[in-house]
């Protein structure tokens, strides 16, 4: 088989198949193996190229139908990839971006790096909260990074403008004013230990109730003053009274009252504020792996010993138990000893 002159790293295997590396004008290379004798074509791509082509599910078949030879197929494919992958780098495009930024209100531009690879826009909302949007221009398609409860989606990443992106950014921010007001009230009046680091994109707060008991409150962004999803963390003995109160009084929740006041009334306690004397340490990491988050899971099993109350990931505790000589299992429950105080503990096995 004769190699394709424009793509010397692509090797035709038969009249209807080829394999190798496709090179674009920005010197990027992508592995591709195509057998276009079947419909749809049997295509093997590297991950980055596949993710780009998945945005255009019928395009590959369309290119095949328009091509009669290896040469025409590769040429048509390269032309299409150049349009969707290779960023415009000419001076005209750069000048357009500079003019767009210059036309923005000065208070909307936080920073521009000297290579014009990143533009950071900002917007101050009704609650005097400042939000940042980073537009990264050093990849084949622009990347838009912001800390919001929803992702900023740009309809056409090839024809975007700074003005349109800023407007979309502001529109999203305007949707979450009540949510952030409620979360700010929780932050001001409770001992909040999560999220860490602080994030405007998070719709939950983990607050300390007492000693070894904390509560994860997850708000509904569309109805932030309504009853949130509540999850108590701590030893079973410690959290059960709180769970019972919530179950009994769930109908007493008043959306016209703040979340902090509702929780205090329903749980019969004054939610503690963060200590100001420096004694603000509370153990939230797993006592086995010494990490907080592991594979998306947080420590939620606590030792029932009142002088211990150490937290553990379920899987970490099971692994620890299985290393003990006296471990036993009954149906789905594993029994062992606390790694810290050696008091009896048990945990439901992960299925």
Number of helices: 9
Main sheet attributes: strand count, strand direction, barrel closure? 4 strands, antiparallel
Shape descriptor? extended
Q: Please give the order of strands in the largest beta sheet.
A: 1-2-3-4
What is the strand tally?
17
The termini sit apart by: 54 Å
**Category from helices, strands and their pairing:** alpha+beta
Low-confidence stretches: none
User: Over the alpha carbons, how many angstroms does the gyration radius reach?
Assistant: 28 Å
Average pLDDT: 85
Helix content: 25-40%
N to C succession of SSEs: EEEEHHHHEEEEHHEEEEHHEEHEEE
Note the beta-strand portion.
Answer: 15-25%
Describe it:
The protein is of the alpha+beta class and 351 residues long. It is built from nine helices and 17 strands. 28% of the residues lie in helices and 24% in strands. The strands form five sheets. The chain has a four-stranded antiparallel sheet. Strand 10 and strand 11 form a beta hairpin. The two termini are 54 Å apart. The mean pLDDT is 85.
Index terms:
4-stranded antiparallel beta sheet, 9 helices, 351 residues, 17 strands, 28% helix
Task: Describe how the helices and strands are arranged.
Layout: E1 10-14, E2 17-23, E3 29-35, E4 42-45, H1 47-53, H2 59-66, H3 70-84, H4 91-102, E5 109-112, E6 118-124, E7 130-136, E8 143-146, H5 162-174, H6 177-189, E9 192-194, E10 204-210, E11 213-218, E12 229-233, H7 236-249, H8 259-267, E13 301-302, E14 311-312, H9 314-322, E15 328-330, E16 333-337, E17 344-348
Antiparallel strand pairs: 1-2, 2-3, 3-4, 5-6, 6-7, 7-8, 9-10, 10-11, 11-12, 13-14, 15-16, 16-17
Helix pairs in contact: 2-3
């Amino acid at each position: 088989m004769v190699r394709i002159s424009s793509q010397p790293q692509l090797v035709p295997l038969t009249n209807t198949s080829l394999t190798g590396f496709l090179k674009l004008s920005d010197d990027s290379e992508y592995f591709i193996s195509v057998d276009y004798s079947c419909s749809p074509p049997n295509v093997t791509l590297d991950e980055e190229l596949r993710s780009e082509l998945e945005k255009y599910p019928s395009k590959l078949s369309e290119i095949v139908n328009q091509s009669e030879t290896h040469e025409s197929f590769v040429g048509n494919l390269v032309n299409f990839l150049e349009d969707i992958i290779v960023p415009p780098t000419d001076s005209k495009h750069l000048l357009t971006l500079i003019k767009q930024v210059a036309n923005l209100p000065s208070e909307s531009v936080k920073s521009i790096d000297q290579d014009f690879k990143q533009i950071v826009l900002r917007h101050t909302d009704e609650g005097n909260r400042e939000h940042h949007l980073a537009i990264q221009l050093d990849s084949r398609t622009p990347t838009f990074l912001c800390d919001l409860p929803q992702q900023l989606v740009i309809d056409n990443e090839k024809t975007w403008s700074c003005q349109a992106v800023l407007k979309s950014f502001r529109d999203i921010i305007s949707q979450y004013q009540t949510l952030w007001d409620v979360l700010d009230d929780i932050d001001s009046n409770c001992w909040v230990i999560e999220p860490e680091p602080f994030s405007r994109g998070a719709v939950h707060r983990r607050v300390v109730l007492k000693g070894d008991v904390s509560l994860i409150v997850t708000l509904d962004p569309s109805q932030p003053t309504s009853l949130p999803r509540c999850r108590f963390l701590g030893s079973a003995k410690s959290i059960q009274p709180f769970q019972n109160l919530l179950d009994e009084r769930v109908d007493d929740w008043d959306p016209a009252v703040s979340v902090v006041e509702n929780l205090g009334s329903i749980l019969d306690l004054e939610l503690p504020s963060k200590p100001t004397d420096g004694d603000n340490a509370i153990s939230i990491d797993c006592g086995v792996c010494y990490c907080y988050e592991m594979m998306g899971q947080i420590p939620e099993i606590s030792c029932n010993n009142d002088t211990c109350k150490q937290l553990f990931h379920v899987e970490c505790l099971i692994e620890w138990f299985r290393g003990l000589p006296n471990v036993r299992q009954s149906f789905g429950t594993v029994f062992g000893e606390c790694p810290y105080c050696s008091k009896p503990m048990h945990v439901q096995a992960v299925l």
